[in-house]
Design goal:
It is a single chain. The chain has 221 residues and is mainly β. The chain has one domain. The protein is built from one helix and 18 strands. Strand 5 and strand 6 form a beta hairpin. The two termini are 34 Å apart. Pfam families: EPTP. Keywords: Membrane, Repeat, Signal, Transmembrane, Transmembrane helix.
């Protein structure tokens, strides 16, 4: 299982003695984020079910809280004393599942008043990679499907901004073909510039990056 370990500011070390186990199998990547009000969340991409090898196992968002006892935790507005796993001074409970297929990587970003989770899915099914969106002003954000992406065996995904944050992008690496670069136009992530896309919001949209066999992506500069 995946594990969360607390950073000890006094010793400047991770507390590895009492890690918090996340009740999910087949995990491939993880990203953490903090909602309005300080609530902590962890999104885990799931590649496949380890028992059945099924690739349609959903990815999972967990919410972090404070342990109440060995079996329950306090999660502020999200169900006080809810059943939970606990350890390392933290409690965790399943918050939301997202219908992904062979999710290989996950990325998080906030652009304007929207919060995004993007999943790069290692699947040959067309449009298997996905972007989910939620209200960035909510203390308990619930994600819904925003877009399906035209990827083929996607392996890595990253959000980034450019021009001092005035332009926002998503890039997806794929095992075959090219990496896909999409620009956010305040509504959707677009792959082509057209008359319906404001120039300032779509600068650079519609480009693909000349590389294949991509396993990982990282922002530079």
């Amino acid at each position: 299982s995946s594990r969360v370990m607390r950073w000890d500011a006094t010793s400047e070390r991770l507390d590895t003695a009492s890690p918090l186990a996340l009740p999910v199998s087949g995990a491939s990547s993880v990203v953490a984020f903090t909602a309005v009000g300080g609530g902590g969340f962890v999104a885990v991409s799931v590649l496949r079910d380890l028992e059945t090898s099924a690739v349609d196992s959903p990815s999972v968002i967990f919410k972090l809280g404070v342990p109440f006892n060995a079996t329950h935790g306090d999660f502020a507005d999200f169900g006080i004393r809810r059943a939970a796993s606990s350890g390392g001074g933290l409690a965790v409970t399943s918050y939301q599942t997202l219908p992904t297929r062979a999710a290989h990587d996950v990325a998080h970003a906030v652009f304007g008043d929207r919060r995004f989770l993007a999943f790069a899915c290692l699947d040959t099914v067309p449009h298997s990679s996905q972007i989910f969106a939620a209200d960035a002003t909510s203390a308990s954000p619930l994600f819904t499907l925003l877009q399906e992406l035209p990827t083929d065996r996607a392996t890595s995904v990253r959000f980034f901004t450019h021009f001092g944050g005035s332009s926002s992008y998503l890039v997806v690496g794929q095992r075959s073909g090219t990496a896909l670069l999409l620009a956010y136009n305040s509504s959707l992530f677009v792959a082509a510039v057209d008359r319906g896309v404001a120039a300032a919001a779509s600068a650079g949209g519609g480009q693909v990056l000349p590389m294949s066999g991509t396993e990982a992506l990282s922002r530079v500069g």
